[in-house]
Amino acid sequence: MVFLTTRLWLRNRLTDRFWRVQEVLKHARHFRGRKNRCYRLAVRAVTRAFVKCTQARRLKKRNLRTTFKSLAALAKRRQQEGFAAALGDGKEPEGIFSRVVQYH
């Protein structure tokens, strides 16, 4: 785009700056206090929020991996206990749903 006058060039630059500020303020609208209105404070808050968001995603993936591993190990143990009880080795716990009936 060719600007023939300095006035047009400045006007174009001004609108770019306006939309750049609006983009940051859009992400800061839900913050409390002056952070959602003042550009300088909003830039800091939005940058910090994006950094925390990235760290939280990594932490969530790490937590899900450890949880999944422990749940898989627990399921494997429960499955083996179920096979042992189905074979009838007498290790089934007592209770209402127990197949081993004891008469007193």
TrEMBL record:
Family statement: Belongs to the bacterial ribosomal protein bL20 family.
Molecular function (Gene Ontology), one example: rRNA binding
A GO cellular-component term linked to this record: ribosome
Annotated protein name in UniProt: 39S ribosomal protein L20, mitochondrial
Taxonomic superkingdom: Eukaryota
Keyword Cytoplasm: no
Bilayer-crossing regions: none
InterPro entries: Ribosomal_bL20, Ribosomal_protein_bL20_C
Keywords: Ribonucleoprotein, Ribosomal protein
Record-linked Pfam families: Ribosomal_L20
Keyword Ribonucleoprotein: yes
GO terms of biological process kind: translation
Gene3D superfamilies the record matches: 6.10.160.10
